[in-house]
Design goal:
about 35% helix; Rossmann fold; alpha/beta
Length: about 180
């Protein structure tokens, strides 16, 4: 049942490893000036985000990323360069940066995001209590094992592509959520 204070559907989405493709052992700080703009997206990410906005969540799609000041600046540059808001329909003021992993769950509580959250790290998803559907997106197996492994019976659903996630999120649902 949805919280009466926040009755609308809402979803939170991480950037690195979910929207953008981050190669193994990648470090933003090692990039030469403006080379961060060449970072690619996960296959189908922008199109999937656009569909989540237009077909289900509308104005309740939030991008929530944990990073330091340097990475925040470079990520903002990347978002502008790739015309992220125009391409996806996600509002610029719905892109939120924080400095600590547990802050993502706190931001979701504050924004009323109780329907779904997508992240590529099990350690992040373990902080979420109120969100009904948690998606572990293309995770690193070693990181998953460090956090006790994947339990298919938990509210954390393993997904390996945007197409797979859309098939779940946009499937007809009798409960309306």
């Amino acid at each position: 049942m949805l919280n009466k204070i926040y009755p609308e559907l809402a979803i939170g989405i991480d950037i690195g490893g979910v929207i953008t493709h981050i190669p193994d052992n990648f470090k933003f700080a090692d990039l030469a000036k403006d080379s961060h703009l060449k970072i690619t997206t996960k296959l189908g990410a922008f199109e999937a985000l656009r569909r989540l906005v237009t077909e289900k969540y509308h104005d309740n799609v939030f991008v929530i990323s944990k990073c330091n000041d340097l990475i925040e600046d470079r990520t903002k540059d990347w978002l502008i360069y790739h015309r992220f808001c125009e391409a996806t329909g996600i509002k610029a003021d719905h892109i939120i940066f924080c400095r600590n992993n547990p802050d993502k769950a706190e931001i979701c509580r504050g924004k009323g995001i109780q329907t779904a959250f997508i992240d590529n790290r099990m350690g992040i998803l373990k902080h979420f209590q109120e969100v009904r559907r948690l998606y572990l997106f293309c995770p690193d197996n070693d990181e998953v094992l460090q956090h006790g492994g994947y339990d298919p019976y938990s509210n954390i659903k393993l997904v390996n592509s945007w197409a797979e996630l859309l098939a779940i999120e946009l499937a007809p649902d009798k409960t309306g959520s």
